[in-house]
Amino acid sequence: MTDISSQGKTAGKIIEFEMLQNIAEDDNKHESDYKMLFQGQGKILLALVDTDGISQKDLVDRIDMTPQSTAEFVRKLERRGLVTREKSITDKRVTLVRLTDRGRAEIQKRTRSIPEYLRVLSDDELQQFNNILDKINGQMYRDIKDADPTLQNKYHQFMLNQVLHKIHPD
Amino acid sequence: MTDISSQGKTAGKIIEFEMLQNIAEDDNKHESDYKMLFQGQGKILLALVDTDGISQKDLVDRIDMTPQSTAEFVRKLERRGLVTREKSITDKRVTLVRLTDRGRAEIQKRTRSIPEYLRVLSDDELQQFNNILDKINGQMYRDIKDADPTLQNKYHQFMLNQVLHKIHPD
DNA sequence: AAAAATAATCAGGTCTACCTGACTAAAGAG
DNA sequence: CTCTTTAGTCAGGTAGACCTGATTATTTTT
């Protein structure tokens, strides 16, 4: 029988953990801020990882944003040199977007780094932590799917299994 | 000897965890979005938890923001009915800010809820998880202190040990 | 009492994330 | 060869998180 108050304690610690991450990021300014991987420009960057040249339309479909917003973010990314935009030859309405090397590097920078704090865990603890995260993440996948059974939000699907491996193949 | 690749795996899972939280929050819209506890209005709300009536000046000192921004956020919170502002009688320059009940409730709403996903953990795992989080958080406290030894950023100090217990006393 | 310091406000600005509505340029269908 | 659909753009807007500079009250110091 699961102990509710222990769950509560854990919940608090998780919040604390997130707070601390946030504070730590304030200090590193820009370097490893993965808050911003989940919206706006970051979201687009991520959505481009596993493709090479995708139309804005397809982008829109996977990230669940209006075409206008999408276009705006793509443009911003272009200005930052993280993506390129070029007209398709086969369909002249279409704009193809692709990551530049700098774009790819940017994502990597923002997701790769092994947080320093993991160094305090022993091998055993690391093992346990892996385990726990697997369970939790698994549950969250399920919860999300339940909450959004239409699955029309392909962005989710997309994120969920592919991205990380693409970015950091073993 | 700690296994680096295992750390890498864990790092990936943590990112995945954060992604999933973010996605889940998209669905709940507004309800439990603790991303926004760490900036702007949320930050102020949090800074008010353990006080009853604090001057904007003191607020500024603890949250590391300009007085102007602070004033702006306080005003916004006032409009939302989450704080009150009143002139001090002893020093007529001073504006005292305090949380309303609704403000307090708001914070609670945003921090209290025990994430559903914790239910998949056994008592043992919960125990392990608590342990791990303690270790990690402890390390992060230390890292932050190291990175910012001036400690001039009192906001950090403030957050770190007090808030959560105030919000959810056992 | 005059000068200096302090708490806060006003005005105006930047940048990000989004959105709606109106519109253009191609492509596809009949 | 029109008619409609499609991909994308333009214009303009809201709202949040910040910031700088200038100014107003009030308190403190001298």
Structure description:
2 copies of one chain form a homodimer. The first copy, chain A, has helices at 4-28, 40-48, 56-63, 67-79, 101-112, 123-147, 154-167, and strands spanning 54-55, 83-87, 95-99. By secondary structure, the first copy, chain A, is mainly α. Chain A has 2 domains: 1-30; 35-167, Arc Repressor Mutant, subunit A (Orthogonal Bundle). The longest helix of chain A has 25 residues, at 4-28. Chain A is elongated and about 60 Å long. Chains A and B meet through helix 1, helix 6 and helix 7 of A and helix 1, helix 6 and helix 7 of B. Chain A binds a DNA duplex (30 and 30 nucleotides) through helix 3 and helix 4.
Task: Write out the strand line-up for the largest beta sheet of chain A, numbering strands in chain order.
Answer: 1-3-2
Q: Regarding quaternary structure, how should these chains be classified?
A: homodimer
Q: Most extensive chain contact?
A: A-B, 69 and 68 residues
Radius of gyration of chain A: 19 Å
Q: In the CATH hierarchy, what is the architecture of the largest domain in chain A at level 2?
A: Orthogonal Bundle
Would you tell me which CATH topology of the largest domain in chain A applies? Arc Repressor Mutant, subunit A
Low confidence ranges of chain A: none
Q: Separation of termini of chain A?
A: 38 Å
Number of strands of chain A: 3
Strand content of chain A: 5-15%
Name of the top-level CATH class of the largest domain in chain A: Mainly Alpha
Give the CATH H-level superfamily of the largest domain in chain A. Answer: Winged helix-like DNA-binding domain superfamily/Winged helix DNA-binding domain
Tell me the domain tally of chain A.
Answer: 2
Helix content of chain A: 55-70%
**Helix/strand order of chain A, N-terminal first:** HHEHHEEHHH
The biggest sheet of chain A amounts to: 3 strands, antiparallel
Shape of chain A: elongated
Structural class of chain A: mainly alpha
Average pLDDT value of chain A?
A: 79
Number of helices of chain A: 7
